[in-house]
Specification:
By secondary structure, the protein is an alpha+beta fold. The protein has six helices and six strands, in the order ββααβααβαβαβ. It has helices at residues 22-35, 37-40, 56-72, 74-87, 106-111, 146-159, and strands at residues 2-7, 17-21, 53-54, 92-93, 134-135, 162-164. It is elongated and about 60 Å long.
Length: 165
């Protein structure tokens, strides 16, 4: 699933359409909401694709604020902090094997995941955690970087207002 963001009255090619899958969109939306609350408040549903959005004037103002923060390094610093925070999250118990490292369900039995992982062959063990019983924190699946923000700013500059669909 993704967020398809359409310009209402595009004045540039970049302003016609912007897309992120949900993994990229949610951190981008969170960044915008926390960094520019006065410019984002008119859009209530940043995290859904129900057609909410911003008008042309607010989109342009948001583009200018983002571009200023890209140039100053503020966005890059946010990205570094985000990566450090997400990277410091502890691993979680595997939800497939409940931390056991092996699967005893029908699928586990059918495919040999119900036996401890063999270090020589790499076979066996839970396929969700490679037999460790642990997986990276769920939040690690949600990336954030300045290039994605830059792409959204280019979209905002030329969109003439937008709708998240």
């Amino acid at each position: 699933m993704g967020m398809d963001v359409y310009g209402k009255a595009p004045t540039t090619d970049a302003g016609e359409y912007f897309r992120n899958n949900v993994w990229w969109w949610h951190p981008l939306a969170d960044f915008l909401l926390t960094t520019y609350p006065d410019l984002t408040e008119a859009c209530t549903y940043w995290h859904s694709n129900d057609g909410d959005g911003l008008d042309a004037a607010t989109s342009l103002a948001l583009a200018e604020a983002i571009e200023r923060d890209l140039a100053s390094g503020k966005v890059a610093e946010y990205a570094r902090r985000y990566e450090a925070e997400v990277g410091a999250l502890p691993d979680e118990e595997c939800t497939i094997c409940r931390g056991a490292g092996i699967r005893t369900d029908a699928i586990g039995q059918e495919y040999g995941y119900d036996q401890p992982r063999d270090p020589d062959t790499g076979k066996g063990g839970c396929n969700g955690c490679s037999g460790t019983g642990r997986t990276p924190a769920w939040e690690t699946h949600y990336p954030f970087d300045a290039e994605n923000v830059k792409g959204f700013a280019a979209f905002l500059r030329g969109c003439g207002g937008f709708e998240i669909c």
